[in-house]
Amino acid sequence: MLGPIKQYVLSGVNRRYKDETNRRIMVVNLFAAVGMSITFLLGSRAFIDGEYFLSTILFSASVIFALSQRLQVRVATAKARTWSITLLIFCLMALTLLLVITGGKDNTGPLWIYLVPPVTMFFAGFIRGLLALVAYTIACTIVLFGFNEADFVANYSYAFKTRLLYSFATVTFLSAFYEYSRQKSYDTALYLSEQFERQAKHDHLTQLLNRRGAQQCLEREYARMQRNKRHFSIAIADIDRFKSINDSLGHEQGDEVLRQISNIFKTRSRGQDVLARWGGEEFMFIFNDTDEAGAVKALEQIRATLNNAPLNINGNEIYITSSFGVCEVTPDIDTSSAIRLADKALYHAKEHGRNLVCAASTLPCR
Ligand SMILES: Nc1nc2c(ncn2[C@@H]2O[C@H](COP(=O)(O)OP(=O)(O)OP(=O)(O)O)[C@@H](O)[C@H]2O)c(=O)[nH]1
Which residue ranges does the record assign to the GGDEF domain (predicted)? Predict the structure, then answer.
């Protein structure tokens, strides 16, 4: 029993949409179902009582509620969802306005107008909801006070009409305030989660991607390589004799060295290449669409730039070098093997004097 209900409520929901959009889709489904059932039941009753005009209106509303729900499910686009919501709000407003005009059963029709502010605010959002509600309030005021003598408008006392509008304005204000706070809290939560997401993937010292961020990039690149068969290369850079820099200048200046080196690496890399802080004084380069020879060429330029550009640490010029190990990722060499081989090549570069770029394919034994 619960299965089909759940299926109905979730129809149109998509994991790719934002949470807010999915919540709206579910509420539209629920609201359309409730609106459709109530108007259908009331329409049937009006029909049995011989009130054919009222029953026609109620049946039409029932059909519009059903159509708006189908629209958002069948045509799964943002435009269709906006149309679906507009149709629902318009139908609700028209129906309740008609109840104010006719008075409904024993002049109780106006009671339904209190449904309008919360529903409109939730579906249309703060600004559009407020505009729609102002237009609706004006329409209600005209209906209540503009046709005092007209036969087609139900007869309400002056006190009832003014209190109806005052209380409606109060509910509108509260609904608007609630929607405004809800939207603000949602925006704040979204901002915070984006910040957390960013922090989880970035290194706070250099602002580069951290190991986790780099690993996600590697997975993406590997999947892309399997799709389009274009290889990419991974390089690991390790600052030479960094321990002695820390020992002589202190840890804080050591951090500044890392920051300046990361800037040099970044500015010397192509826009599409990825640079990450792989660990303490180790950096990773991901050269997409690049074979090992291409990566070696790019790294030679980066190495030479660092070698020739003095860093300015606390007013002193110091020269720092780095060693690099590089390996191409191919269908035969997956990412973790490539990282292991790039590490081996880096070790080889360190052993052979440092300030070198060493390719994994040139290692004596891999
Ligand atoms: N200031 C600073 N130092 C770090 C950071 N992460 C790692 N280190 C230091 O980097 C140094 C790395 O030293 P080693 O691994 O011995 O290597 P090295 O001195 O660079 O020598 P080679 O790699 O052989 O050229 C260690 O002293 C670490 O404490 C960091 O975030 N900031």
Answer: 230-362
Beta-carbon count within 10 A of 188 CB? 10
- Whether the pLDDT of residue 366 is over 70: the answer is no
Q: How do residues 286-308 score in pLDDT, each as one tens digit?
A: 999 999 999 999 999 999 999 99
Quote the tokens at residue 117: 């502010």
Residues 6+ apart with CB under 8 A from 179: 121, 122, 125, 126, 129
Q: 118-131 pLDDT, tens per residue?
A: 999 988 999 999 99
Ligand 1 centroid distance, CA of 319 (Å): 16
Alpha-carbon distance 100 to 161, whole Å? Answer: 10
pLDDT digit string (tens) for 249-272? Answer: 999 999 999 999 999 999 999 989
Q: Which CATH superfamily is domain 211-362 in?
A: Reverse transcriptase/Diguanylate cyclase domain (3.30.70.270)
Residue of 242, 261, 262, 343 with the most ligand 1 atoms within 8 Å of its CB, for mutation: 242
Question: What average pLDDT score do residues 189-206 get?
Answer: 94
Q: How far is CA 229 from the centre of its chain?
A: 31
In the chain, where does the domain assigned CATH 3.30.70.270 lie? 211-362
SS3 357: strand
Q: 213 and 206 in contact (C-beta within 8 Å)? A: no
* Residue list, ligand 1 pocket, CB within 6 Å: 238-243, 246, 251, 254-255, 258, 280-281, 350, 354
For the chain, the straight-line distance linking the first and the last C-alpha, in angstroms and rounded, comes to 62
Protein residue with its CA nearest to atom 31 in ligand 1: 280
Q: Are 345 and 295 in contact (CB under 8 A)?
A: no
Q: How far apart are CA 83 and CA 120, in angstroms?
A: 14
Place of tokens 């060493």: 358
The helix or strand, by DSSP H or E, that contains position 278, with its residue range, turns out to be strand 274-279
Residues constituting the chain:
366
Secondary structure (3-state) at 13: coil
The more confidently predicted of residues 27 and 284 is 284
Which tokens hold the place of 81?
Answer: 């969802």
- Cα angle 128, 134, 135 (rounded to 5 degrees) comes to 90
